[in-house]
Amino acid sequence: MFFITHQTPSAFLQATRNRLDAHQRKLNVILPHAEKLATAQRAGHSLAPGQFWITGWSSGNGSNGELEFVLSCTEHHLGTYPLFLVYLRPLPTIPTQTLDADMFELAKRLANIVPPTRVFSFYGQEAPIRALATHWSSVTGSKPVATPYYEASSSYCTQQTLVKGSTLQLPNGHEMRLARAEDASAIAQLCKEFADDSPPFTLTPARAMQEAQYMIKNRSVSVYTIDGIVTTIVAVTRVSASVAGMTKVYTTPIYRGRGCAEKLVAHVCRSQLASGMESVVLFVGHTLAAARVYHRVGFVGVGPAKSSSYTPDAENWLEIGFHGTTLGHW
Fold this sequence. Notes:
Layout: E1 2-6, H1 9-20, H2 31-42, E2 52-57, E3 67-73, E4 75-76, E5 79-80, E6 83-87, H3 96-113, E7 121-125, H4 126-140, E8 150-157, E9 174-178, H5 184-196, H6 205-217, E10 221-226, E11 229-239, E12 243-251, H7 260-274, E13 279-285, H8 290-297, E14 316-321
GO molecular function, one term: acyltransferase activity, transferring groups other than amino-acyl groups
Pfam families: Acetyltransf_7
Organism: Serendipita vermifera MAFF 305830
């Protein structure tokens, strides 16, 4: 395995561009943000220090070989992200010993370039994340949090899988639309409730308002309203050339059981696919009953459609946290 550390988003994208397009679904946690940072850099904005990308190549002396995985260490408007790790090759084709050896080398490389306090968690496909977390703990002494922060399945919806229905007729007083500035307080409240359900990544009211205003400004959050009350939000905040990432779906408890989330998710999927996106992707927590909702909309590999066999781009993902670190947010 040959490793390359890229200190700027432009350097990372230039070294990997012709290899990333076919893997936009897997790379939704990494690629859209790298592109956003590269655009900001070209516009003359300075980037926060300490951000980097590591690529692993299976042959040759770097970018003339086969790209195996990408790891990112980045941050955004609400703070630092987890370190995201994405393997591009189907994991069942990689021998366990090879994967373990790669993650041991990656852990040693990381220990030389990032302080352990920055690595509050690793997130990626389950097998490499378990191996990387084990070796990171051994190399640095960082102790993993006993219970993973997040256990999820990746999934996607396309024009072919989207469940087609007749033109949706909403009840009187119900509306689905992009959020507007006047929705900020209501959306902030739902963002805070969503974060309260996702410890340790909770939000203060001020930071929840910051997130709401950011999403509204970027036209990345849609709402379902009943008699003018915002009941449900669906956010799409990670977008690359042909893949849109649905990053937040939440209905406030008093309005659950009315189909608001299912209708809004389907509406947002139809809008994204009609705009030219080839796929809408998301992560579904293993314990969430919402998997059935996504299945009914047309997402692959979740709910009753989840298969025990390997399905490309519908894999088990895992976030493992560490004690004694500076917590970020995502």
